[in-house]
Amino acid sequence: MAKLQGTGTALVTPFKKNGTIDEQSLRKLVDWQIKNKIEFLVPCGSTGESATMTRDERRRVIQIVFEQAAERVPVIAGTGTNSTNDSIELTHDAKEIGIDTVLLVGPYYNKPTQEGFFQHFRKIAEECDVKVVLYNVPGRTSSNMLAETALRLAEEVEQVIAIKEASGNLEQVMQIIKHAPKDFSVLSGEDSQTLPIVTSGGDGVISVISNEVPKEFSDMVRYALKGDLTKARDLHYKLFDLMRANFFESNPIPVKAAMHMMGMMEDTLRLPLTKMSKVNSDKLKNVLKELKLV
Fold this sequence. Notes:
By secondary structure, the chain is of the alpha/beta class. It has helices at 23-35, 55-69, 84-97, 114-128, 138-141, 147-156, 170-179, 194-199, 214-226, 229-245, 253-261, 278-290, and strands spanning 6-10, 40-42, 77-78, 101-105, 131-136, 160-165, 185-188, 204-207. Strands 2-1-8-7-6-5-4-3 form an eight-stranded parallel beta sheet. It is globular.
């Protein structure tokens, strides 16, 4: 893989009404994403409800996406957990399937020190011999990996090639962009901050909204990367209300509701996530209608 750039979709995981993986809908989603010019796919991240899937289910979802993508676009598998050993096992599973790059979320609940972050990611990268995209999302993990730690990993661990930065702290993101090695990619983890991050020198995004609007959102990123800021800004504001609507409730509750309204899959989530409230669902539907998605 060349330097990671553009838009990757943090894929939702379709479930049937009985809660099992909806393989047919997942395969259709992969094909639809690729048809709409997404640059890469990311199964089993937060948006994919990986936290409530078994190891076998995560392996199966990764396998389905990898098979269906059929080398048309790269697949970066989410294999991170809050246990270093469990993350190593999941990463080995992904590597056996054929995955060469993984997304590793910062350990949640444990609240590691900055040295703990470093040793966690270093051990997984070195033991599994895969390329690693770090994922910093303190809003979910309760711990922020500082720019200094991300940069240390980028400099000292050869397999660490990128970071998905979802701290919401643009100053922190810019610090990484300014000091990162030239071949290290900085990707937005917040859809609404993608345009400012890319125009500040970032490389793209791992996105929620690209589940719903893969072509328009990835076009926005491509325009921004090429320096066509007028077209990028127009698309940013066209999609801005949907970016916000996707977080009316905890991700992926809204995006799954939207995909159901669009006829792509069942609106089935796993507890402790529940279906969107009617008030927010109605507001989301209005946003989708404005974009002519329903």
